[in-house]
Specification:
Elements: E1 6-10, H1 18-26, E2 33-38, H2 40-50, E3 56-59, E4 72-76, H3 93-108, E5 114-117, H4 122-127, H5 135-140, E6 149-153, E7 158-161, H6 168-174, H7 177-193, E8 201-205, H8 220-234, E9 238-243, H9 245-248, H10 251-255, E10 259-262, H11 265-276, E11 281-285, E12 291-293, H12 311-327
Parallel strand pairs: 1-2, 1-5, 2-4, 3-4, 5-12, 7-10, 8-9, 8-10
Antiparallel strand pairs: 6-7, 6-11, 11-12
Helix pairs in contact: 7-8
Length: 328
């Protein structure tokens, strides 16, 4: 089977809902071969407890051929401690990170087409004494001059961010002409290479109300954001802005835009979630491989109940498949 048709999946926190969501999806027809990077015995126990008849095949190595009769291929990564559902343990923090390491190495070696990540419990990793801010930063670690860009995509629009998880008071200082330009270039490249859009149309929001109101409501829009848009436009990219954020996302603008670039988290993500909640996929751009993720947490109270809804996981996997096919 071609590596582009293999989608790696890390189920995330073993005490949360990630493993059972993957198991639910594995029993459904999938266009591509799903490869779980996880503890095979943990998955088997969870499937049995939930009454899910999942045929699993343990791969001997990342480049080994899978069993076409199996619902799920498993690249085994052993747990470090027993799992108590609903109770994340710092003892398994190293296991969670090892699944990401193994997935990243497999992708870099060309043995899979994309990665879809399940929800993790950041607090359990930090409680283990490991500084960890999230999937995006961790996957980019050790990859040289890689600056990942966070994008949320739904059926109505795609929004990438210049800054991500920062207090609002820190946003203005974190924005520079270079950072805005880098995000524009990264989004433009991803739209062409991973989304199959030959001439991407991008819209960049301003930072301040009314995009600064000619300097009366802030200078960043004209002095910082504007030059980045001018430079990328001069390089041949279809980029407009800075556009006032309160009018950037209306229906007509969405029809003529392939991706929006917002300055901070809630400026862009509140809109995409309001329009497409439950259908939104978290995508990391700028990595040397494709990575998508669910847009929900570990839901510890639902772990083991079988009541968790796998829809977000399915949408994230489908997005990974679409991007892998466009990039192939």
């Amino acid at each position: 089977m071609a590596t582009s048709t293999r989608i790696l999946v890390t189920p995330g926190e073993p005490a949360g809902i990630g493993p059972e969501l993957l198991l639910q999806l594995a029993t459904q027809d999938q266009a591509e071969q799903l490869v779980a990077v996880a503890d095979a015995d943990m998955l088997a126990r969870r499937a049995q407890a939930l009454g899910l008849a999942v045929r699993m095949h343990r791969l001997e190595s990342a480049d080994a051929a899978g069993d076409p009769q199996a619902h799920l291929q498993v690249l085994h990564c052993p747990l470090r401690a027993p799992v108590v559902l609903g109770q994340p343990s710092p003892d398994n923090a190293a296991y969670v990170l090892q699944t990401l390491d193994l997935a990243r190495d497999t992708l870099l070696a060309g043995h899979a087409g994309a990665l879809c990540t399940g929800p993790i419990q950041k607090s359990a990793i930090n409680d283990a004494g490991i500084a960890f801010s999230g999937h995006t930063e961790y996957l980019a670690k050790g990859l040289g001059d890689v600056v990942p860009v966070m994008m949320l995509a739904g059926p109505s629009l795609r929004v990438a961010l210049v800054t991500t998880h920062l207090p609002l008071r820190a946003v203005a200082d974190a924005i520079s002409t270079a950072s805005v330009r880098r995000v524009i270039e990264t989004v433009h490249t991803a739209m062409r290479q991973q989304f199959g859009i030959a001439e991407p149309r991008l819209c960049v929001t301003g930072l301040n109300p009314h995009a600064g109101e000619a300097g009366h409501l802030g200078l960043e829009d004209a002095a910082v954001i504007g030059p980045a848009i001018q430079a990328t436009s001069a390089a041949g990219m279809d980029v407009r802005g800075p556009v006032p954020a309160d009018t950037a996302f209306h229906a007509q603008a969405r029809q003529s835009t392939d991706a929006f670039i917002a300055m901070y988290h809630d400026q862009g993500l509140a809109v995409v979630k309001a329009l497409d909640f439950g259908k939104v996929v978290n995508i990391t751009l700028g990595l040397p491989f494709i990575r998508t993720s669910v847009d929900h947490g570990t839901a510890l109270d639902l772990a083991g109940t079988g009541r968790a809804n796998p829809h977000s996981f399915q949408v994230a996997i489908e997005q990974a498949v679409t991007m892998a096919r466009a990039a192939a």
